[in-house]
Amino acid sequence: MSEVINKVALIGAGSMAEYHVKGYRQAEAEVVALVDKNPAVGRAFATRFGLRGGCYGTLGEMLEAHPEVQAVSVITPNKFHLPLVTEALSRGLHVFCEKPPALNAAETREMAAVAAKNQRVLMFDLNNRARLDAQYVKRQIREGAVGRINSAQAVWQRRTGIPGFGGWFTTKALAGGGPLIDLLHMIDLALWFMDYPEPEFVLAQTFEDFIHDPDFRGVWANTKGDANGTTDIEAACHGFVRFKTGQVLYLHNSWAELVKKEDTYVALQATGTGVFIRSVNESNTCELYSQEHGVSRDQCLRFRNDLDMGRTRAPANFIDTLNGKAEPLTSVDEAIRLMELIDTVYLSAEKSRPVHIVDHSYIVC
Ligand SMILES: NC(=O)c1ccc[n+]([C@@H]2O[C@H](COP(=O)([O-])OP(=O)(O)OC[C@H]3O[C@@H](n4cnc5c(N)ncnc54)[C@H](O)[C@@H]3O)[C@@H](O)[C@H]2O)c1
After folding, report:
1. Is 80 in the pocket of ligand 1 (CB under 6 A)?
2. What's the pLDDT score for residue 74?
3. Disulfide check for 320: which of 180, 197, 300, 325 has CB 3.0–4.6 Å away?
4. Which residue's alpha carbon is at the smallest distance from atom 18 of ligand 1?
5. Are residues 14 and 47 in the same domain?
6. Residue 103 to residue 242: CA distance in whole angstroms
7. Is residue 240 part of a domain?
C-alpha cells in the first residue's frame, strides 16, 4: 500500500477508546475526530484528548467535515460492530474493530465479504496477542522450541466480576452472550498458539448461578449498569474442544463463580517445551518447562513493563500494518473461526449435547 495512512477517527468514546488514541499516536497517526451517539460523552472525550475535529453524531457527518480520515476504530457495544464496520468499509475506510468481532460467525463473515468487496483492511482488537509474553511464546513456537502442542487450557475466571451489571454487557441482544464471548482473549491466544486448528467436536456447558446477584458485580464498566436492567447471559462457561489435528483445548470463562480470585492464563502441553503464561496484577509471567539430560528445567520470565494487556500496541499494529511496517496481528479468517467456535460452544451448552463440526456447519450429536 503506497498511500501513507495517518488520519484516523474513533466510533465510540467509552472505556476502551483512550487505548486506541494512545496506540494511534504511538504509530504516529493523528486521531482527527470522534463519532458517538451520546454527544455529551463524545464532546468530553474529544476535549480531554485534544481531537481537533471534535465529536459528531454519525459517521457520515464526520466524514463530510473530515474527508481526510482514512481509517476508523469501532469501539461500541458488540451489536453495533456489524452495521458500523460495514458502513465504514463501504465508505472506503480501513477498519479496526474491537473484540468480539461481532455477535456471531455469520455477522463476521458478512464483514469479511464487505471488506473484500471494497478492498479495505479489516482487523480486530485481539489485543492479548500484542502482549510481550504472548509475542515471546509465539516466537518460540515459530522457531520450533515448543514442538507440537498437544493440549491447551484457556482460562479467564472471575469471582465477582460481572461488568456493567444490568447494562449492555449483560444483555444478550446487545453483547451476544456473557463471559464466553466477552473474555474470549485466552481462547484466541490458545488457538493462535496452536495455529488455529479446525475443531471437530465441542462439548460445553454454561451456568447462570449468581448472574442476577449484584454482590457479584465487578469494577469494569460498573458505572454503566442498571440494578433493574437485563441480565440474560451466562455467569460461567466450561468447555472442551477436540480438533481434527488430534489436539484438544479446555476453556473456562466466568464473571461470577466461587473461585479464589480472578485469574487469566493459557497453558500449553507440548512435545518440546511446556508453556504457562499468566497476566495478573499488571505483570505478565511466562513459565517454560523442559526435560534436559534427566533434569527438569523450569524458566520463569517476567514482563513487567506491559501494563495494558497489549491494548495500546494492537491499534498501533493496525496502522503499522497499513503502512507496510509490520505484519498484521490478526486476520479476518481467524476472527471467523474464533466466532464459529464460540457459536458452537453456545450451541452445545444450549442443547446439552456434543456438537460435531463439518465444513463449518454444526451438527448436534
Ligand atoms: N479489548 C479489550 O480488552 C476490551 C475491553 C473492554 C471492552 N472491549 C470492547 O470494546 C467495545 C466497547 O466497550 P466499552 O467498554 O468501551 O463500551 P462503553 O459502553 O464504555 O462505550 C461505548 C460507547 O459507544 C457509544 N455508542 C454506542 N452505540 C453507538 C453507535 N451506534 N454509534 C456511535 N456510538 C455509539 C456509546 O455512547 C458509548 O460512549 C465492546 O465491543 C467491548 O467488548 C474490549
Report:
1. yes
2. 98
3. 325
4. 14
5. yes
6. 23
7. yes
Q: Are residues 348 and 206 located together in one domain of the fold?
A: yes
Give distance in angstroms: CA of 273 to centre of ligand 1: 38
Domain containing residue 359: CATH number: 3.30.360.10
Quick check: is 321 in a domain? Answer: no
Q: Which residues contact 320 (CB under 8 A, 6 or more apart)?
A: 27, 326
Mean per-residue pLDDT, 244-265: 97
Shared-domain flag, residues 155 and 46: no
197 shares a domain with 72: no
Residue from 10, 11, 16, 220 to probe ligand 1 pocket by mutation (most atoms less than 8 Å from CB): 16
For residues 10-23, give the mean pLDDT. 97
Ligand 1, atom nearest to 175 Cα: 43
Our measurement of the distance from residue 187's CA atom to the centroid of its chain's CA atoms, rounded to an integer in Å, reads: 9
Which three cell numbers mark 63?
466524514
Kindly state whether residues 22 and 111 are assigned to the same domain. yes
Domain region containing 37: 7-127
- What CATH number did the domain enclosing 46 receive? 3.40.50.720
Separation between Cα atoms, residue 283 and residue 200, nearest integer Å? 35
Separation of 99 CA from ligand 1 center, angstroms? 10
Is residue 185 within 8 Å of 156, Cβ to Cβ?
yes
DSSP letters for 4-19 = ---EEEEE--STTHHH
Kindly calculate the radius of gyration of the chain based on its CA atoms and give it in whole angstroms: 20
> Given a cut of 60, is residue 96 above it in pLDDT?
yes
Over residues 131-183, the pLDDT tens digits come to 999 999 999 999 999 999 999 999 999 999 999 999 999 999 999 999 999 99
Q: Does ligand 1 come within 6 angstroms of the Cβ of 221?
A: yes
Measured from the CB, is residue 38 less than 6 Å from ligand 1? yes
Residue 1 within a domain: no
> pLDDT per residue over 215-245, tens digit each?
999 887 777 778 788 999 999 999 999 999 9
Half-sphere exposure of 129 (CA within 13 A, CB side): 28
Q: Whose CA is nearest to atom 40 of ligand 1?
A: 77
